[in-house]
């Protein structure tokens, strides 16, 4: 039985910029010995702070940029030198939407369909998929930010590619538009498309992605399913209750009576409105709070992908 090749196989990929010529300084390594596999039908995320190398890696995977070292293959075929046989199997949605001037949404899509030789009827099908049927006659420049992003994704899908690359598709969108776009992206993936996504939003990656690679300084620091990466962090659970129901002094007395000794007791903190207990053993703490009738305003927060991201990449501001 022949094994189906991975959608993407990258091995030892390197990309450097600068460093040649007088006064140009040392070279910058944007992608530093990256290897990864993306399975067919997978929703794969690439995460990292500004300057981590995400977009450069994405452009190499797409075959838009030549690596200085290493190889990338799509369904077993090399993507560089530019492999024209793969063009109709790859869809790309760029970070910033750019459309032909003065064309309506339907005309934009028709132009892309004609370029790829897509069958008749594909334009109306795609408008329906991205929820823009009622905007078919609207000029692209008159669309809202969320509508423009959906049109951009439709243009990337109009030729029915096997693999779709999305570079920060929800950047600068309001929460409602982001959620609508998430539903669309999940539907696209459910249709069997392999999706590779870069994003700054950890909740987005946690919601959408089967696996994520967290990058910084050109390297992959961690790779795995979001839930798996969170479990590896082994972070405490934060239990927060209304400070009026459980002032910090009362909380300290309550946890002092818990079994397990001082090492097993929660750390106690406070905000203006809440008392916060941090523990790796939440069950006895919650039971004690219930027995003390101190559950008002209860919130229980475990670690998230954002905690993993910050633990790996740090908290300093990246311009």
UniProtKB/TrEMBL annotation:
SUPFAM superfamilies per UniProt: P-loop containing nucleoside triphosphate hydrolases
CDD domains: ABC_DR_subfamily_A
Gene Ontology biological process terms from the UniProt entry: response to antibiotic
Recorded GO MF terms: ATP binding; ATP hydrolysis activity
Annotated membrane topology: Peripheral membrane protein
Domain ABC transporter: 8-242
Keywords annotated in UniProt: Antibiotic resistance, ATP-binding, Cell membrane, Membrane, Nucleotide-binding, Translocase, Transport
Subcellular location: Cell membrane
Entry-linked InterPro entries: AAA+_ATPase (IPR003593), ABC_transporter-like_ATP-bd (IPR003439), ABC_transporter-like_CS (IPR017871), ABC_transporter_ATP-binding (IPR050763), P-loop_NTPase (IPR027417)
Cellular component, GO annotation: plasma membrane
Family: Belongs to the ABC transporter superfamily.
Name of the molecule in the record: ABC transporter ATP-binding protein
